[in-house]
Amino acid sequence: MLRRDFLKLCLVGLQGTTLSPLLQRAAEGKEKLGAKQVSRHTKKFLRGVSSICQLCPARCGIVGFLEGDKLVKIGGNTNHPNSLGKLCARGLSGVSLAYDPDRIVSPMIRRGERGKGQWEKISWEKAYMEIVSRLKSIYRSGKSGEFVFESDSPPTGLTRRFLEGFGNVLVLDDQSLGFANRDKAHWLTWGEDRGVPDIKNSRYILNFGANPYESHEFYTGFIGRWIEAQCNRKAKVVTFDVRLSHTAGNSDEWFPINPATDGAVALAMAHVIVSSNLHDRNFMERWTNLSFSALAQHLTAYTPEMAQKLSGVHASDIERIAIEFATNKPAVAVSGRGVTNHSNGVYNERCILLLNAIVGNIDAPGGLCLPRTYRLDGPQESLSSTTKRGASPREEGPRLTPHRFLSLVNQGRMNPKLYFLYEANPAYVNPESRLSLGVLKDEKKIPYIVVADHYMTETASLADLVLPTATYLESWGLDSSPALDLVPFVALQQPIVRPRGSSVAISDVMIEMAHRIGGGLARLFPYESTEQYLQKVVSSIERLEKAGGWSYLKESGVWLDSRERPRYRSYESRGFRTPSKKMEIYSERLRRSGFQPLPAYEPVGDHGDLRGKFVLVTFEPNVMGSRTGNLPWVAEIKHHNVVWLNRDVAKQLHIEEGDRVKISTSAGFFISDVRLTFGLHPRVVAMERNLGHWAFGHIARGKKFKSQDPNTELVWWEKEGNGISPNIVISGNADPIGGGEAYNDTLVTISKVRRVTP
Hints:
This protein is of the alpha/beta class and 758 residues long. Among the domains are: 108-178 and 387-468, Rossmann fold (3-Layer(aba) Sandwich), CATH 3.40.50.740; 195-372 and 576-592, 3-Layer(aba) Sandwich (Dimethylsulfoxide Reductase, domain 2), CATH 3.40.228; 605-753, Barwin-like endoglucanases. The protein is 32% helix and 17% strand. A seven-stranded mixed beta sheet has the order 6-5-17-16-15-7-8, with helices on one face. Strands 21-25-22-24-23-26 form a six-stranded mixed β-barrel.
């Protein structure tokens, strides 16, 4: 059996039904609203409540099944046009989150020194008094940078409204650590923060450093369409990655490229396409801001031979693949953190965007498309008059990441008075963990820290005040993620179960704080609850209102306009959201900032001489995110990590499978077991991230304990341990344009550790 046929047979369950009929049913409301199942234990009907998963950025549609008031199962919502009723193991494991005995269920105030674990339970009234008294002082002073807010993902809805209304707030988010460079490159080039590959309609997929078989921001829905392209359209997939990832292993060709040289390969391919007269002249002349002659001149230096010297990919392969890419349409070049998590990440991403533009694959069937979403800003009561601050790819200069912020605080260059973190954990996710820990512990550097979270995370354990927040299973929200089939939709997050203890949704916390602070901020919050605010947002979408509005959303979980169909090349009617209204191959904004205005290859400074050193590359396991470590169902699947090392290199270093090795950098060291493989570039060591918690909860730390949940005593992997967080040795280094952390640039040394025999 051919591998392609085997894939088709094995993965048909992931894709399920074809998209068009399902889209049609969802749009016209013909899909049965709500959901029911029968309990396999009691044979009783289970009541279904539609909502959205929040355990990764994909925001898949879910249905929570209740036996009485108890959540017993989470399934996929077949009405959801992105996820199509499919869920990954993370999504299914959300049941554990609702009843986790490790959750924080009441506000707590610190007693004693920071980090000593001495806490006193207090009321919400006292907690609000603690926060609001400080915020009022900052609000009245109007000084910038005294109030810093950080969240796991960019703030939306009422949280964003509060921050913009407050004014002079420094807003940070943990997603900027991974996506800042990509977002900046896209904003500079075509005025959007990201693109949406129309992957299911592609016949040729050129993959630079993405790994959707294991992890992706659109995860389940995206990989289902990727597999559909491979199986139904016989799409060829070519992957450039330092590691034989699951995606690389399911590709037609894999090239273990030298780290951070993807941009050079993309430019060499562009050179071949232009010199072979295979480019889309019409698109380049009408919709880019650089003349063809200037582009051709710029690409002259980027020959396949030059790229071979830099990347290790043979010139003949570069030339062949470039011609295949240009002549097998529709085609698309995609990228991932393997490309952008470098100090040259913005340049790398702009080179790949250029490759798509040269062959006219922009917003075209099977190409790289502009995102289709609905704006969910809500009513604008005087909002336009407030000051807006924060970290955004749409600002001039590099994005300020949480790590960079704490570095500036450490240097005395920033002096925050109140640091408010919502589901953010910089002590764990930042590079140079020891630096972040040192700053967070120092009350002179940050006088007051508030953490709103479900768990006593590594960062929460260093806070002055901890607030228990409702989970996505217990709170309201709206989502309009980029539509994978290019028809925008609105999805509703609604409570499936009641909040644990005295947990409160962060949006309701914002309403209460705004009312207590008063003044102009209070006038922006004429709402008593998040539900009331969201109903007003929904009522502003005319076609949704006509389809049934709030009641329809509560029952079906998602809405899209039945009259809408995918409309390609939208730029032809409105242009691109750039100053020139064209794709800006030449970036005047980069030139003004002192950077090369054209897509270019910029070498990573210390990668030139790797004698005795290796590049550390981290990757995300498909079930384990930075915030899912305490969910026992996924922790049982992935709870331990090891260092990956090339087998030939290991032989030279006299290292064998299962040996212990010491990984050292300028930031620190750790000791780990080693796994030998041929599926890794010889100058790279690799390791899974999102493991090795030293707080967060018992399961995240690999510890069993007694509770009302029998799963907590079934931690059979306790002796094996909970792995290592590689962030403790990753150097703090950022892309100077995008500000994103260069997680995949750190140089390490590796040495064998002798086992001590008892």
